[in-house]
Amino acid sequence: MKLKDLVLIGSGGLAREVLWHLNNENKQTRQYNIIGFVDNVPALKDKTVNGYPVLGNDQWLLDYEKEVCAAICIGDPNVRRSVYDKYRGKRNISFPVITADDASYSETVHFGQGCIVCPSSALTVNITIGEFVIIDLHCTVSHDSVIDDFATLHPGVNIAGNVHIGACADIGIGTSIIQGRSIGENTVIGAGSVIVKDIPANCTAVGVPAVPINTH
User: Fold this and answer.
1) Phi-psi label, residue 77: left if phi above 0, alpha if psi -120 to 50, beta otherwise
2) Exposure string (b/e) for 35-46, b if CB count within 10 Å is 16 or more?
């Protein structure tokens, strides 16, 4: 089987973690030829990160003409969306769903393009995941939940059934969300929060139980 060339967009902690689980996956069922990182930090150009070259910045990939897969490994939802907006017209670039070998999910979980599911996360049944959603380490998502485009679940987030997470929501590490609640788009939930009521869009909410503390 011919391997698919893949670049990791970003070279920070999340990108290096994705590289780690891709390399673990490749030991079992090799799918990708990882050719390196793309990063806009000028000092990183021509450097090596965890054994792989930093190929250049966004313009390097925009100028690249061969067929290539890309994973946008950037935790901030709005930055991730702005990066995708640069590339969305490039037909030679595809954005596969990347799931760690030990992540578990049923056949009734639907992923949009560009999603990343990190090790030890579990998604149960009848779940809809939008495009470019990141589900970090040790998260759980229960039945009939919906997570919209570009949302980020940081490590250890636990989501009960029938929860709706809006686009570009940023759910902090260790957050728990009880059944049937919703979090609006562009909302930030602080680490360790417990969501027992709906949280509106465009705010930051923290605490146990979580309450909005500002709008943005």
Assistant:
1) alpha
2) bbbbbeeeebee
Contacts of 50 (CB under 8 A, 6+ apart): 16, 19, 20
Burial class (CB in 10 A: 0-12, 13-18, 19+), 214: exposed
Give the residue-averaged pLDDT of 152-168: 98
As a whole number of angstroms, the distance between CA 216 and CA 205 comes to: 11
Tokens describing residue 150:
């570009």
Write out the two tokens for 154: 């940081």
In this structure, are residues 122 and 106 in contact, taking their beta carbons and an 8 Å threshold? Answer: no
What residues does 122 pair with on adjacent strands? 104, 140
Bridge partners of residue 199, in order along the sequence: 183
Give the list of residues 6+ apart from residue 123 with CB closer than 8 angstroms, or none: 103, 104, 105, 106, 109, 117, 129, 135, 140, 141
pLDDT per residue over 92-105, tens digit each?
999 999 999 899 99
Q: Which residues pair with 170 in a beta bridge?
A: 152, 188
Q: What is the pLDDT of residues 56-90, one digit of tens each?
A: 999 999 999 999 999 999 999 999 999 999 999 89
| Ordered domains of the chain (ranges, CATH) | 4-96 (3.40.50.20), 100-207 (2.160.10.10)
